[in-house]
Amino acid sequence: MKTNKKWNSVALASVALILFLILVSSTASAATEQSDSCVKTYAYVTNYASSTVSVIDTESNKIIATVKVEKYPFGVAITPDGTKVYVANSESKNISVIDTATNKVAATVNLGNGTDPYGINPYGVAVTPNGKKIYVTNYWAANVSVIDTDTNKVTATVDVGSQPLGIAVTPHGTKVYVANRGSNNISVIDTITNKVIDTLVTGESQPYGIAVSPGGNKVYVTNFGSGTLSVIDTATSKVTATVNVGSGPQGLQSTRMD
Predict the structure, then answer these.
(1) For the chain, how long is the longest CA-to-CA vector?
(2) Distance from chain centroid for Cα 239
(3) Per-residue pLDDT tens digits for 43-80
(4) Are 188 and 119 members of one domain?
(5) What is the rounded distance in angstroms from the CA atom of residue 183 to the CA atom of residue 175?
(6) Which of 135, 159, 183 is the last residue of a domain?
(7) Would you call 130 helix, strand, or coil by DSSP?
């Protein structure tokens, strides 16, 4: 698989905007110009090739800021209070932390070098509902970094399957689901212990994107190699349905379907 690193990067870059355009509600500096009841909403978009993040005002659909980050940004997550944006820089082995009040990089979290000659390649980013932890998939390192949002330090590194990509936290914040493309399985991490407590196999090829339903009863996994979507019951950890979709499915999101 490592001989296909360039192909993987191109494929990943092609969906960066789809996977990681996220809306954030923030009173930030705009609050001084508007009433207290008015909340501005922005979209933060990672631009893989230009190593920037575009900030879009969703009312006007205009770019209001462009934030320079590090090399090849991909995954992005915003804390629930809307104050910080965490961006995975896939070729820089680190995370940029953007302050939404200023739209400036306020901190950089180093994730380490790893032992693989290709580096660690952070891609997927997810935040817990209480905003206390950030989970980052490191593609070539086959692990997940856990970041404390108060200190912006890595507090744990969790070994998972090969080539982890998609990552999602349950609504109650108790579990993290990781799609391991290389090993064709799903790792389940306990957020209290930061240990893998289960490994799920869907029977499909190259799990890629992952999402948890708003009620937390189902996990949805896109399988890039199979052209399918797997539906997992979180109570039983069993696949309850497999849906044939288009070729090479990657990103996904769920509305309330429990």
Answers:
(1) 55
(2) 22
(3) 999 999 999 999 999 999 999 999 999 999 999 999 99
(4) no
(5) 20
(6) 159
(7) coil
Helix (H) or strand (E) holding 144: strand 143-148
What is the pLDDT, as a whole number, of residue 33? 37
Q: What is the pTM of this model?
A: 0.87
Distance (Å, rounded) from C-alpha 147 to C-alpha 108? 11
List of the chain residues with pLDDT < 70: 1-38, 114-119, 256-258
Cα 220 to Cα 243: distance, rounded to the nearest angstrom? 10
Number of domains observed in the structure of the chain: 2
Tell me, what's the pLDDT at 112?
84
In this structure, the answer to whether residues 176 and 129 fall within a common structural domain is no
- Is residue 236 located within the same domain as residue 187? yes
pLDDT at 32: 32
Q: Is 245 exposed, middle or buried (0-12, 13-18, 19+ CB in 10 A)?
A: middle
Q: What is the DSSP string of 182-248?
A: TTTEEEEEETTTTEEEEEE--SSS-EEEEEE-TTSSEEEEEETTTTEEEEEETTTTEEEEEEE-SSS
From 136, 159, 182, give the residue that closes a domain: 159
CATH number at residue 203: 2.120.10.30
Q: Taking the CA of residue 162 as centre, how many other CA atoms within 13 Å lie in the half-sphere pointing to its CB?
A: 8
